[in-house]
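C-alpha coordinates please, single chain.
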Amino acid sequence: MQLYTKTGDKGYTSLIGGEKVRKDANRVDAYGTMDELNSLIGYIVSQLEERDSSLKGELIEIQQNLFDCGTDLATPHGKGTYKVTKEMVQNLEMSIDGYADKAPEILSFVLPGGHPTASLLHMARTVVRRTERSIVSLGFGETVNQYVAVYMNRLSDYFFAVARAVNNRYNVKEILYERGGKVFHPELKKEDLN
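Here you go.
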Protein backbone atom coordinates (compact mmCIF):
# COMPACT_ATOMS: atom_id res chain seq x y z
CA MET A 1 0.00 0.00 0.00
CA GLN A 2 1.44 3.34 -1.07
CA LEU A 3 1.51 5.88 1.78
CA TYR A 4 0.94 8.95 -0.39
CA THR A 5 -1.96 9.23 -2.81
CA LYS A 6 -1.63 12.88 -3.93
CA THR A 7 -5.43 13.17 -3.77
CA GLY A 8 -5.22 15.83 -1.04
CA ASP A 9 -2.69 18.06 -2.77
CA LYS A 10 -5.36 20.60 -3.70
CA GLY A 11 -6.79 20.90 -0.18
CA TYR A 12 -9.59 18.34 -0.37
CA THR A 13 -10.14 14.98 1.29
CA SER A 14 -12.77 12.27 1.01
CA LEU A 15 -15.23 11.30 3.73
CA ILE A 16 -16.66 7.83 4.20
CA GLY A 17 -19.02 7.35 1.27
CA GLY A 18 -16.76 9.27 -1.12
CA GLU A 19 -17.95 12.86 -0.61
CA LYS A 20 -15.09 15.34 -1.07
CA VAL A 21 -14.71 18.21 1.38
CA ARG A 22 -12.12 20.86 2.10
CA LYS A 23 -9.44 19.82 4.58
CA ASP A 24 -10.36 22.76 6.81
CA ALA A 25 -14.05 21.71 6.99
CA ASN A 26 -15.53 21.42 10.49
CA ARG A 27 -15.93 17.67 10.10
CA VAL A 28 -12.27 17.19 9.16
CA ASP A 29 -11.18 19.50 11.99
CA ALA A 30 -13.18 17.39 14.46
CA TYR A 31 -11.74 14.02 13.47
CA GLY A 32 -8.29 15.55 12.98
CA THR A 33 -8.28 16.83 16.57
CA MET A 34 -9.47 13.36 17.61
CA ASP A 35 -6.37 11.94 15.89
CA GLU A 36 -4.17 14.37 17.83
CA LEU A 37 -5.77 13.16 21.06
CA ASN A 38 -5.23 9.53 20.09
CA SER A 39 -1.54 10.23 19.42
CA LEU A 40 -1.15 11.90 22.82
CA ILE A 41 -2.72 8.87 24.50
CA GLY A 42 -0.27 6.66 22.62
CA TYR A 43 2.57 8.71 24.07
CA ILE A 44 1.12 8.38 27.58
CA VAL A 45 0.91 4.60 27.13
CA SER A 46 4.59 4.53 26.11
CA GLN A 47 5.54 6.34 29.33
CA LEU A 48 3.62 4.18 31.80
CA GLU A 49 5.47 2.14 34.38
CA GLU A 50 4.99 -1.62 34.79
CA ARG A 51 2.78 -1.18 37.80
CA ASP A 52 0.32 0.74 35.64
CA SER A 53 -0.37 -2.18 33.27
CA SER A 54 -4.14 -2.14 33.89
CA LEU A 55 -4.24 1.57 33.01
CA LYS A 56 -2.24 0.83 29.88
CA GLY A 57 -4.88 -1.69 28.80
CA GLU A 58 -7.66 0.83 29.43
CA LEU A 59 -5.91 3.55 27.45
CA ILE A 60 -5.33 1.23 24.49
CA GLU A 61 -9.04 0.36 24.56
CA ILE A 62 -9.83 4.09 24.56
CA GLN A 63 -7.53 4.51 21.56
CA GLN A 64 -9.56 1.84 19.75
CA ASN A 65 -12.77 3.66 20.72
CA LEU A 66 -11.36 6.93 19.41
CA PHE A 67 -10.86 5.31 16.02
CA ASP A 68 -14.57 4.45 16.12
CA CYS A 69 -15.36 8.04 17.12
CA GLY A 70 -13.24 9.33 14.24
CA THR A 71 -14.97 6.97 11.81
CA ASP A 72 -18.37 8.25 12.95
CA LEU A 73 -17.21 11.84 12.51
CA ALA A 74 -15.97 11.05 8.99
CA THR A 75 -19.35 9.50 8.13
CA PRO A 76 -21.89 12.05 6.86
CA HIS A 77 -25.52 11.37 7.83
CA GLY A 78 -27.03 8.51 5.92
CA LYS A 79 -23.75 7.27 4.46
CA GLY A 80 -23.06 4.42 6.91
CA THR A 81 -23.73 2.84 10.29
CA TYR A 82 -22.43 4.54 13.41
CA LYS A 83 -20.05 2.63 15.69
CA VAL A 84 -20.10 4.58 18.97
CA THR A 85 -22.92 3.43 21.26
CA LYS A 86 -24.57 4.24 24.57
CA GLU A 87 -22.88 1.13 26.03
CA MET A 88 -19.43 2.58 25.29
CA VAL A 89 -20.41 5.69 27.26
CA GLN A 90 -21.71 3.57 30.14
CA ASN A 91 -18.46 1.56 30.29
CA LEU A 92 -16.52 4.81 30.55
CA GLU A 93 -18.82 6.00 33.35
CA MET A 94 -18.12 2.80 35.33
CA SER A 95 -14.38 3.43 34.98
CA ILE A 96 -14.80 7.03 36.14
CA ASP A 97 -16.70 5.87 39.23
CA GLY A 98 -13.97 3.36 40.03
CA TYR A 99 -11.18 5.92 39.77
CA ALA A 100 -13.10 8.56 41.71
CA ASP A 101 -12.97 6.25 44.73
CA LYS A 102 -9.17 6.03 44.49
CA ALA A 103 -8.46 9.69 45.32
CA PRO A 104 -9.36 11.87 48.30
CA GLU A 105 -12.50 13.97 48.11
CA ILE A 106 -11.92 17.53 46.91
CA LEU A 107 -13.93 20.67 47.58
CA SER A 108 -11.87 22.93 45.34
CA PHE A 109 -10.41 23.02 41.85
CA VAL A 110 -7.14 21.13 41.41
CA LEU A 111 -4.22 22.62 39.52
CA PRO A 112 -3.23 20.30 36.65
CA GLY A 113 0.03 18.52 37.39
CA GLY A 114 1.67 16.31 39.97
CA HIS A 115 3.26 13.01 38.97
CA PRO A 116 4.52 13.06 35.34
CA THR A 117 1.85 10.54 34.29
CA ALA A 118 -0.87 12.59 35.99
CA SER A 119 0.39 15.71 34.22
CA LEU A 120 0.17 13.96 30.85
CA LEU A 121 -3.35 12.76 31.69
CA HIS A 122 -4.35 16.35 32.44
CA MET A 123 -2.94 17.36 29.04
CA ALA A 124 -5.04 14.64 27.43
CA ARG A 125 -8.09 16.00 29.29
CA THR A 126 -7.60 19.44 27.74
CA VAL A 127 -7.17 17.99 24.24
CA VAL A 128 -10.40 16.04 24.81
CA ARG A 129 -12.13 19.33 25.64
CA ARG A 130 -10.82 20.93 22.43
CA THR A 131 -11.98 17.90 20.45
CA GLU A 132 -15.37 18.14 22.11
CA ARG A 133 -15.66 21.82 21.15
CA SER A 134 -14.93 20.89 17.52
CA ILE A 135 -17.63 18.21 17.62
CA VAL A 136 -20.17 20.60 19.15
CA SER A 137 -19.39 23.18 16.46
CA LEU A 138 -19.84 20.52 13.78
CA GLY A 139 -23.10 19.34 15.36
CA PHE A 140 -24.72 22.76 15.05
CA GLY A 141 -24.36 22.65 11.27
CA GLU A 142 -24.39 18.96 10.39
CA THR A 143 -25.70 15.67 11.72
CA VAL A 144 -23.29 13.72 13.93
CA ASN A 145 -23.62 10.63 16.10
CA GLN A 146 -24.79 12.09 19.43
CA TYR A 147 -22.90 9.40 21.36
CA VAL A 148 -19.55 10.65 20.05
CA ALA A 149 -20.11 14.01 21.77
CA VAL A 150 -21.33 12.30 24.95
CA TYR A 151 -18.36 9.90 24.92
CA MET A 152 -15.95 12.82 24.63
CA ASN A 153 -17.66 14.67 27.45
CA ARG A 154 -17.22 11.64 29.73
CA LEU A 155 -13.67 11.07 28.50
CA SER A 156 -12.53 14.41 29.93
CA ASP A 157 -14.02 13.37 33.30
CA TYR A 158 -12.22 10.03 32.97
CA PHE A 159 -8.83 11.68 32.46
CA PHE A 160 -9.43 13.98 35.43
CA ALA A 161 -10.37 11.04 37.67
CA VAL A 162 -7.42 8.93 36.51
CA ALA A 163 -4.94 11.80 36.94
CA ARG A 164 -6.10 12.26 40.53
CA ALA A 165 -5.90 8.50 41.20
CA VAL A 166 -2.36 8.39 39.78
CA ASN A 167 -1.25 11.25 42.02
CA ASN A 168 -2.75 9.47 45.01
CA ARG A 169 -1.13 6.16 44.07
CA TYR A 170 2.32 7.76 43.84
CA ASN A 171 1.73 9.85 47.00
CA VAL A 172 1.98 13.13 45.12
CA LYS A 173 0.08 15.88 46.87
CA GLU A 174 -2.20 17.84 44.57
CA ILE A 175 -2.11 21.60 44.65
CA LEU A 176 -5.56 23.07 45.15
CA TYR A 177 -6.64 26.30 43.52
CA GLU A 178 -6.60 29.30 45.83
CA ARG A 179 -8.49 32.40 44.78
CA GLY A 180 -5.98 35.19 44.22
CA GLY A 181 -3.27 32.56 44.98
CA LYS A 182 0.18 33.31 46.25
CA VAL A 183 2.52 34.97 43.81
CA PHE A 184 5.51 32.76 43.10
CA HIS A 185 8.68 34.13 44.56
CA PRO A 186 12.11 32.70 43.61
CA GLU A 187 13.07 32.35 47.28
CA LEU A 188 10.16 29.99 48.02
CA LYS A 189 11.26 26.44 48.68
CA LYS A 190 9.57 23.41 47.17
CA GLU A 191 8.29 22.43 50.63
CA ASP A 192 6.46 25.78 50.88
CA LEU A 193 4.30 24.82 47.87
CA ASN A 194 2.97 21.63 49.51
